[in-house]
Amino acid sequence: MKSSLSPYNSILANVAKHILLTAEEKKYFCSQLRVKKLRKRQYLLQTGDVSRFEQFVTKGCLRAYYVDEQGHERIVQFALEGWWIGDMGSFFSGQPATLTIEAMEDSELFQIERNDFDILLEKVPKFERFFRILLSNAHIAHQRRVLSHLTGSAQERYLDLRSKYPSFEQRIPLRHIASYLGVTPEFLSRMRKQLAKKK
Amino acid sequence: MKSSLSPYNSILANVAKHILLTAEEKKYFCSQLRVKKLRKRQYLLQTGDVSRFEQFVTKGCLRAYYVDEQGHERIVQFALEGWWIGDMGSFFSGQPATLTIEAMEDSELFQIERNDFDILLEKVPKFERFFRILLSNAHIAHQRRVLSHLTGSAQERYLDLRSKYPSFEQRIPLRHIASYLGVTPEFLSRMRKQLAKKK
DNA sequence: TCATTTCATTGACCTACATCAATAGAATTT
DNA sequence: AAATTCTATTGATGTAGGTCAATGAAATGA
Questions:
Q1: Phi, psi angle pair for A145, to nearest 5°
Q2: What is the pLDDT of residues B69-128, one digit of tens each?
Q3: How far is B94 from B112, CA to CA, in rounded Å?
Q4: CB nearest to A149's CB, from B68, B88, B182
Q5: To the nearest whole angstrom, how far is the Cα of A146 from the nearest Cα of chain B?
Q6: Considering A5, A69, A101, A160, which has the largest number of Cβ atoms within 10 A of its Cβ?
Q7: How is the beta sheet containing A73-79 ordered, strand by strand?
Q8: Alpha carbons A157 and A154: distance in angstroms, whole number
Q9: Around Cβ B171, how many Cβ atoms within 10 Å?
């Protein structure tokens, strides 16, 4: 937390989008964070473990997915720099996680532990507000995603994703993008071919 | 708020699931609510209007839906007694609503207005916690719903819905259930026929 | 460096679900 | 009580997207 290049700045900037902290509070908040480094392909969380942390990505790129009975992976979330990721169900309930979270690149995160999280909310109630806002944004985004499945074709979902997050195609393997969209890699490949032709 | 039969009890019970209020706080909270009665088919919110309220259902049954370019309705949420419903995006941002909300039966709701909501959170910060928990539950439910579209067939979604909310089939027309599941009424009808045969 | 695994693409064929049209029973309205 | 909507169901047919198998290119590892 010394230089302006510190990764703490990125999480503080994220917090500052919604609530205003005093210098003291910033310091306290940062003191509750632990740094976690992951190698590419390393798991952050595996199904069945209890998720004791929520995390904020400062470097790299992760994916959260669910493995169904046939062993297929279904990606529910990507997280790049500046995103929060975790298995919130498990984090809040203490039940075993249903999600697996894995680094797609060497990554660095901040983690906050469930206990410290509760104490943080108690000591600095502004954080109740912060997480409420975070969640309400997530809620709205999720609603849009459900809608995109009810309303649109796979191609529309692909085009939406591409225009909203152009960086994904550079950093994320196509088969993972297919899984996020809810189609097979084969079908994504065909869509891409057809779109390229039309252009 | 006088008798134990008052509809205030149902919203207070809902709040009490997550936070503990003093008698004073209960009184204040209830004083910020307004009662809204709707006839069957009446709109609570129409696309393009700004949603100034969030609401809690004490009686009846509503649906929130999105209308796509071809005029098709896609249902994103049902709400029966004891549920919260609204267009949260519009409520928090002040932007025009993308959802339409309509009563499917004569219904009664409590509404809280955006301004009063902000003041409530300021005066009784426990409500930050309450809405955060409400949202995190919604978040988890939404994630499951996205997953059900990525992973499962329409039949699985139908069976899930039926076992989770058996009362829906008594109260909600099949064509709305079809819309919620993301299939046509025709296809839902065929699924039901086939399931009935197998039994 | 060669060997091995992983990845994206293509082709052939299959299935879950959509669309459109017709009908009959319910529910509303007159 | 008749007339007029809605609603659920069925049949015929069309299509988006899945499955399985094969191939070459790229990444990974010894």
A1: -70, -40
A2: 888 899 999 999 999 999 988 998 899 999 999 999 999 999 999 999 999 999 999 998
A3: 15
A4: B182
A5: 6
A6: A101
A7: A43-45, A100-103, A62-67, A73-79
A8: 5
A9: 14
Q: Output phi, psi for A154, to 5 deg.
A: -60, -35
Closest residue to C16 (CA, C1′): B153
Query: Which structure tokens are listed for A154?
Result: 């796979």
CA distance A40 to A27: 31
What are A100's strand-pairing partners? A65
Strand partners, A43: A102
**DSSP state letter for B96:** B
Please, what's the largest Cα pairwise distance for chain A?
A: 58
End-to-end CA distance of chain B, in Å? 48
Nucleotides of C under 7 A from a protein CB: 7-12, 16-21
How close, in Å, is residue A114 to chain B by CA atoms?
A: 14
With the C-alpha atoms ordered B167, B169, B170, B176, is the resulting torsion angle positive or negative?
positive
B60 φψ region: left (φ > 0), alpha (ψ -120 to 50), beta (else) = left
The SS3 assignment for A126 reads: helix
Among residues A136, A47, A138, A149, which one has the least CA distance to residue A85?
A138
Contact criterion met (CB below 8 Å) for A189 and A174:
yes
Dump pLDDT digits (tens) for A138-190: 888 988 999 999 989 999 999 999 999 999 999 999 999 999 999 999 999 99
Q: How far apart are the first and last CA of chain A?
A: 48
Residues in chain B: 199
Quickly list H helices, chain A: 8-16, 23-31, 88-93, 114-123, 126-151, 154-164, 168-171, 174-181, 185-198
Q: Which secondary-structure segment (H or E) carries B110?
A: strand B107-113
Q: What is the dihedral of CA A140, B106, B82, B147, to 10 degrees?
A: -40
